[in-house]
Amino acid sequence: MLGLIISLIVIGLIAGALARLIVPGRQSMSIPMTILLGIIGSFVGGFIGYLIFHNGNGFLQPAGIIGSIIGAIIVLLIYTRVRARGARA
Asked: Are 37 and 72 contacting, i.e. CB atoms less than 8 angstroms apart?
């Protein structure tokens, strides 16, 4: 169980950092928020993988590094759009 938590944190940090490098613009996020972005992105990537390939143990599962990066990019794009919309209001 501890290994799963540590791997989620490490993969989350890598995926979140790469997503922040890929998505243009400034994202004012701390390191814990970057890790959280990567972890959420991992589950989003796992969900998308389940929808496309229909294999795995369920629709809510962590993805590999590529799926985590893709999921983190999607989550970051949604986050920046919602945050920009809230700033204009």
From this structure: yes
Specify the pTM.
Answer: 0.83
Count of CB atoms within 10 A of residue 66's CB? 11
Read off φ and ψ for residue 75, nearest 5 degrees: -65, -40
Quote the CA–CA distance of 66 and 63 in Å, as a whole number: 8
User: What tens digit of pLDDT does each residue of 67-87 get?
Assistant: 889 999 999 999 998 887 776
In the Cβ-directed half-sphere of 75, how many Cα atoms lie within 13 Å? 29
For 24, the domain range is 2-88
Total number of domains in the chain: 1
The backbone torsions φ and ψ at residue 28, rounded to the nearest 5 degrees and listed phi first, read: -85, 85
